[in-house]
């Protein structure tokens, strides 16, 4: 490793590129899978006769699984070796993908998505560790350029690929496509990755993990059950929310005791980390939660095919692709407190258009708004994460990186749950059509349900005025939900106002720990 770095500090040689190929394959599977599924949620509603709040758990369960294994992956890599663990992660992800395609109920699909997330959550942090060790600290910049490809293309290619597969074949293929890629990646990894050198590692906080992950899952399950029950007083809602809240609060109190806690909340004493984490957390809840609904609007109100819905989402990814490299360069030169507010203003401006959606809103306006939001998104997330980690010392960077990334996954889960609950609650307020019942459940079909069914080819014996009235109700439901997301975006401006507006010297160049500043201390900056 050190020889490569010494000979060609600015170039990635063949040996490093061979390892990079394995990591990029894993990253493509993991990143694409998040965005591919976003256009499939309405399809899952139809296939499994489920509410939007229920099918959103295919995303919520996946991101909760990611949050669970992020801290576990660093400990396990030292304990069992990166190559063995990376191949296990590939196997879990591929197996989970194949099982997802066999699901015949929404409960099964959610369970298999959790298994998929346990594998997918380890692919990126392990891949970053493997590549950083192979390339050496001198070539981290060029390394990030290689790994940035799937990160930038995922938001563009995912919805388009998912839409095409659902239209051309069936929803099963958005998961089955991972099988051949996973097999190739496994064989490739077996030959390309260097042999493991497992070393003793610090103890892992299993007690903390057993409190945080089930606590979040129980609390979000209670929240997502609200549309189904219609009231918080039912046992299914309040008991699970209470049990989840008790576990999460217990975790927070407990996490200050272990030497190596699952999440080191003591790091929040650092003002920059605290402000940046709050900013990122609120932003993720608002933007990622509502972002899942953008393709659903095109599908359910616009009556578009899944492929067209995916294509209509592409401007957002293109916008992010344009500003992300620029924001990365500016983050090293200009304090984030001076740039991030402008990026957030772009997001808010683009988001506002979706609060005005109706049945005939111009696609030019919406696609332009998505592009503007993408420009803002590319200039927001990475600079905020940079600000969070910049003022940490070497020995704190790994724990800070883990903390920020887990908060990001938890925020995604909460955002998906909240927005899906609000939309489902709105849609549940639609008027039932007398004498027209669902043949599967026997429940009355509502005007909103009839309008959505009509948009997807069902020929119901109804007057066009009823269908139009239902369609307007669905559009209003989306607009109301987007208003909540917009309010949360505006709320993000409060913590962002406290981001540093002056350059702050980073202590990473120093080595206060006295361990010589080995590159293994710098590696975790890039892990997640």
UniProtKB/TrEMBL annotation:
Belongs to the major facilitator superfamily. EmrB family. This is DHA2 family efflux MFS transporter permease subunit. It comes from Plantactinospora alkalitolerans. The chain crosses the membrane at residues 19-40, 52-73, 85-104, 110-131, 143-166, 172-191, 203-223, 235-254, 275-297, 309-327, 339-357, 363-385, 406-427, 478-499. Its main location: membrane. It is a multi-pass membrane protein. NCBIfam families: efflux_EmrB. The keyword Coiled coil does not apply. Residues 19-504 form the Major facilitator superfamily (MFS) profile domain. PROSITE patterns: MFS (PS50850). Keywords: Cell membrane, Membrane, Transmembrane, Transmembrane helix, Transport.
């Amino acid at each position: 490793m050190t020889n490569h770095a010494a000979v060609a500090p600015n170039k990635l040689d063949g040996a490093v590129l061979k390892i990079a190929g394995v990591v990029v394959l894993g990253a493509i599977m993991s990143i694409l899978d998040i965005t591919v599924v976003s256009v499939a949620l309405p399809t899952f509603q139809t296939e499994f006769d489920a509410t939007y709040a229920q099918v959103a758990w295919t995303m919520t369960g996946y991101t909760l699984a990611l949050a669970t294994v992020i801290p576990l992956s660093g400990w396990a890599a030292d304990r069992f070796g990166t190559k063995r663990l990376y191949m296990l992660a590939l196997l879990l992800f591929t197996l989970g993908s194949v099982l997802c395609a066999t699901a015949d109920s929404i409960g099964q699909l959610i369970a298999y998505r959790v298994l998929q997330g346990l594998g997918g959550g380890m692919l990126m942090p392990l891949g970053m560790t493997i590549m950083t060790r192979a390339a050496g600290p001198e070539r981290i910049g060029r390394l990030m350029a290689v790994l940035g490809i799937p990160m930038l293309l995922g938001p563009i290619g995912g919805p388009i690929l998912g839409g095409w597969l659902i239209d051309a074949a069936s929803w099963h293929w958005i998961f089955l496509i991972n099988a051949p890629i996973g097999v190739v990646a496994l064989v490739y990894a077996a030959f390309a990755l260097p042999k493991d050198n497992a070393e003793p590692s610090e103890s892992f906080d299993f007690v903390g993990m057993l409190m945080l992950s089930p606590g979040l899952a129980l609390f979000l399950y209670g929240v997502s059950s609200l549309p189904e029950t219609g009231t918080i007083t039912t046992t299914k809602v309040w008991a699970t929310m209470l049990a989840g809240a008790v576990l999460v609060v217990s975790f927070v109190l407990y996490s200050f005791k272990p030497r190596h806690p699952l999440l080191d909340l003591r790091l929040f004493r650092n003002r920059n980390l605290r402000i940046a984490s709050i900013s990122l957390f609120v932003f993720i809840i608002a933007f990622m939660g509502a972002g899942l609904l953008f393709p659903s609007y095109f599908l359910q109100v616009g009556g578009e095919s899944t492929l067209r819905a995916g294509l209509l989402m592409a401007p957002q990814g293109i916008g992010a692709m344009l500003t992300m490299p620029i924001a990365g360069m500016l983050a090293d030169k200009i304090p984030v407190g001076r740039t991030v507010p402008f990026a957030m203003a772009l997001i808010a401006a683009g988001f506002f258009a979706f609060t005005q959606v109706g049945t005939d809103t111009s696609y030019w306006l919406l696609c332009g708004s998505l592009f503007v939001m993408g420009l803002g998104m590319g200039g927001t997330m990475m600079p905020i994460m940079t600000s969070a980690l910049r003022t940490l010392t070497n020995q704190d960077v790994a724990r800070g990186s883990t903390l920020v990334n887990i908060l990001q996954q938890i925020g995604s889960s909460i955002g998906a749950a909240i927005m899906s609950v609000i939309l489902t609650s709105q849609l549940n307020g639609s008027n039932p059509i007398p004498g027209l019942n669902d043949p599967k459940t026997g429940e009355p079909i509502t005007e909103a349900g009839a309008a959505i069914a009509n948009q997807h080819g069902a020929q119901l014996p109804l007057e066009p005025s009823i269908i139009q009235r239902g369609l307007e109700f669905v559009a209003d439901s989306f607009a109301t939900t987007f208003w909540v997301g917009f309010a949360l975006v505006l709320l993000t401006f409060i913590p962002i106002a406290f981001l540093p507006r002056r350059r702050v010297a980073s202590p990473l160049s120093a080595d206060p720990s006295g361990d010589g500043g080995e590159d293994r201390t710098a590696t975790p900056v890039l892990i997640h």
